[in-house]
Write a structure and sequence with these properties.
With about 130 residues, this protein is mainly α. The chain is built from 7 helices and no strands.
Length: about 130
Amino acid sequence: MPRTGRPSKYSEELADAICTRLAQGESMRSVCRDEDMPVMDTMWRWIREKEDFSEQYARAKQESADAIIEDILDIADEGEDVARDRLRIDARKWVASKLKPKKYGDTTKLEDELPINYVITIGGADNT
């Protein structure tokens, strides 16, 4: 049964509010839990159908990588349950590496994926 009473009319102000929260590291699921926000199905439809929102969403998700790294520092500094904290940190590191691979990705892997250029010389040195 679909929910009623939730906003479903797109506006630039609503898009800005959503993307600001996403850029701060909040998940779409968390944003959509608020009564004044659209449900996730509506958000996915907007991403598919509204080019401006799709681009704004993509930028916000990339920016969220920096907020996720800030979360990692807080967890590491204030943690009490070492095993659980390690899991939380590892999950956030993985997400940040996917959102901003050049900044937070595995540099060894990135270097391994660089193209290799070969120069092939045919003939000898006296070949003119």
